[in-house]
Amino acid sequence: xxxxDQAPASATHxxxxxxxxxxxxxxxxxxxxxxGERLLDRxxxxxxxxxxxxxxxxxxxxxxxxxxxxxxxxSLLPGPEWERIYRAIAATGExxxxxxxxxxxxxxxxxAGADILRIAPAPGDITFTCSxxxxxxxxxxxxxxxxxxxxxxRANPGVLxxxxxxxxxxxRTLLRAPKPTDPAPAPGAEPARxxxxxxxxxxxxxxxxxxxxxxxxxxxxxxPAPPLDxxxxxxxxxxxxxxxLRLLARNAxxxxxxxxxxxxxxxxxxxxxxxARLLADPAHRAHLEHAAEQLGLSTLQxxxxxxxxxxxxxxxxxxxxxxLTADAExxxxxEAAIQPHRPAPLASLVSQDNQLTDAAARIQLRLGSDGLWxxxxxxxxxxxxxxxxxxxxxxxxxxxxxxxRDR
Length: 407
Known about the structure:
Helices cover 42% and strands 10% of the residues. It is α+β, with helices and mostly antiparallel strands.
């Protein structure tokens, strides 16, 4: 997961400051904010799902048996307001290249011509809820979510548009639209057509020779000709881009081949798992940043989920996303199986939900819904999927150790 210290070179600060100013004013509790900020390092925070109006996750406190469900809610901007903002940005034409690359320039936070500061919420637009308390209000868990959102905004300011109900895709589409030009000159007189009339043409047809023509030798095409791609530009909004349509066509063809071959085809309508499945194909990795933006994830999160699907399919993605329940006896058996392979056998081994965590070795195993143990390795405080899931927890543990050595 992208943190403030790991943000890419294209990261911005203006949008982050705008979010933090509103978020901390809405919380209005310095103690809760400080505690929540410390939880970023102490608690186990799952993927933060950023959707229009909400940012939510699961957060598990150290030594706790059940995770909390904190949520930060943000008021949405109405559609006409977004349309006005998009058109005001497009009218300048100064930032088209930057926005086309998926970034939102900091200069727009002070672009008074469109009142762009309206994109960043006011303190009154933000509310907090959590499963730890019966009524809405700030708590350390929801404060941690607010700070994690700030990290996302710094790495990808477009998630702030998502939170407020906007879309980087719509903004880019508007910037790509052709600008009005001078009317084309009136067409001149149509040149006279040459040729023969229909009566003479039909006469030539009936007078053709009737003796059989020599048959042409048939040739066998060994390689099927690729279908013609007539898309040369993006279709009008709100249709998908030409690039996205090509990806969907290739995906449909691949699924059709799987059906004809009798292979299992993934089912379900979870957009995160579906995006991970598509991006597991290296040929589709160019769409990773766009998919992350649409789902409210960081690019690193989306890449990890794509790797999880590459290593373990849908069950691997599920193991990467959510804590699952597991039988205590199965966990105890797994602990005994991996004990001989631990580099520090006396270090603590934490068992929680479907997870076995060897913090000293920077290894975590997660039992998937398919009965496989999925290896994960610590990468700057984030558990990253590693190749080599196995029904034998010892085999999966050794696979995680290999991944650490090869990194």
